[in-house]
Design goal:
Strand content of chain B: 15-25%
Number of helices of chain A: 7
Number of strands of chain A: 5
Largest sheet of chain A: 5 strands, parallel
Order of helices and strands of chain A: EHEHHEHEEHHH
Helix content of chain B: 40-55%
Number of strands of chain B: 5
Distance between the termini of chain A: 22 Å
Strand order of the largest sheet of chain A: 2-1-3-4-5
Oligomer: heterodimer
Strand order of the largest sheet of chain B: 2-1-3-4-5
Radius of gyration of chain B: 14 Å
Largest sheet of chain B: 5 strands, parallel
Helix content of chain A: 40-55%
Chain lengths: ~190, ~140
Amino acid sequence: MLVHFSGSSRSIGKDIFLYRKIITAIRSSGHAISHDWIETAWLMKQGKGRDAKGWDLHTILLEVEAGIEAAEVAIVEATGASTLGVGYELALSLQRKKPTLILIDERYSKDSYAIALKHDLLIIKTYNSFNLTKIITTFLEDNTINNKELRFNFVIDRRIYNHLRVKSFRSGKTKAEILRDLLLDDIEKSHH
Amino acid sequence: MIIYFSANHRTLNKNLPVYRTIVEAIQKNGSSLASSWLEAAVIRNERTDSEIPWKDIFYESQIGIQNATAAVVEASGASAFGNGYEVAYALAYGKPTLVLIAESEVRDSYASGLSHEALTIRKYQPENIEAIVKEFILSLRRSR
């Protein structure tokens, strides 16, 4: 599964070990990062700083958006006064219907806007150095769907059944195929 | 026209004159604010025992953006997580959004790299904020 990770690149100097721990937890769970920005940001901070030539913000943000689009879930480190970019990327992840985990350092949770957010796809967890990995692996396990076919019972009334039966007869498709097509169409529309 | 104005609560003390100029510019040009949070935040800041009420701020921002015609966001420098969330939220709701970035901080600003058809990004100096906000409101009126 591809995971998009958002964190403040401004605080990379202070938080590089934290971010590496998060990435390690993701990879150790058998998943991959959709947009691997951390080590680049770290090198720039060390050697070239934010004056690096060719550091094109528009291009970087396009890559971020592509990373969010490609990912199946998102993890956001949103402690304290984290940046506009992290808030923007969080909102994009939710708008793209990605289940999202927000991580907030428990020492600073009172100071965090993120603790107040509400969304059906959002899980907010305060963490410390001991439980961080467990929080991440639990979130990833809960959101891993195998590639096998999934089934569930779909209870309908007579009116829906008759409608499906007529459509099936006219189109030559099975009732299940008609429902799948409707849902795929809806998924497609929700991405635009 | 109803405008939702957003800015960083954490840098309120430092940027209050700028925020007030923006609010006045919105009101002078015949628009009203979706949420009058600024002066309440000033009073709260004066009380040393006050925590920032993030839940209330979040709830009001969602309602404010949904009800507004457009949004104006001051997004300079190391601007807040909440402002980024609100910019994306306003754009998702199709609200024309003006993002203001202090000219001295453009290079450092994530917001300066954003692009969206409903988004207008402007660098400002204290002397020309009012003109920029006025131009944005006039452009909204022309497009209606």
